[in-house]
Amino acid sequence: MTTIRVDAEAVAALGADLRTLAGVLAALEATNDAEAAAIGHDRVSGALDELLGNWTLMRRGLAEALDDLGAVAQSAGHAYVLVEQGIVESFGCVPARCPISGVPQ
Predict the structure, then answer these.
(1) Within the chain, what is the greatest distance between any pair of CA atoms?
(2) DSSP letters along 45-103, please?
(3) Is 98 among the domain residues?
(4) What is the DSSP letter of 100?
(5) Residue 54 exposure: Cα atoms within 13 Å on the Cβ side
(6) Which of 71, 77, 79, 75 shows the shortest CA–CA distance to 22?
(7) Residue 28 lies inside a defined structural domain of this protein
(8) What is the pLDDT of residue 32?
(9) 3-state SS, residue 1
(10) How far apart are alpha carbons 66 and 59 in whole angstroms?
């Protein structure tokens, strides 16, 4: 039988970190106008505009996906904690003592 161990706090923290990363990506400013103007040549400037425009679209999509994943990970982490607490309480455990050995408080 396979055993899976989940660190609920780590899952929730990962979710928070992913949401922070999503915020950083979403806050990046598009600089295509300034950079394209610095190139000068119309064809190169146009290609750079297209590249930076695609990067902006992909960056926004990645930021949204990371934010969604982060929210789900945070919810999962909190759900694991609630389930663990419910299991411990179902054994009649209280903070002062627990009749089931090996059940963390």
Answers:
(1) 77
(2) HHHHHHHHHHHHHHHHHHHHHHHHHHHHHHHHHHHHHHHHHHHHHHTT-BTTB-SSTT-
(3) no
(4) S
(5) 5
(6) 71
(7) yes
(8) 47
(9) coil
(10) 10
Number of domains in the chain: 1
| Nearest residue to 24 via CA among 74, 62, 81 | 62
> Is 94 inside any structural domain?
no
pLDDT 10s digits, 84-93 = 888 888 877 7
Amino acid at 21: L
Helix (H, G, I), strand (E, B) or coil at 49: helix
State residue 105's pLDDT score. 47
- The predicted-structure confidence for 15-59, as pLDDT tens digits, reads as follows 999 999 999 888 886 544 555 566 667 777 777 777 777 888 888
Instruction: Tell me if 27 is assigned to some domain.
Output: yes
The pTM for the full model equals 0.65
Summarize the confidence of residues 78-84 as an average pLDDT.
89
* 91, two tokens: 């054994």
DSSP 94: B
Residue 53: what residue type?
G
CA dist list (Å): 35 to 7, 52, 53: 45, 9, 12
Q: Which domain holds residue 54?
A: 8-87
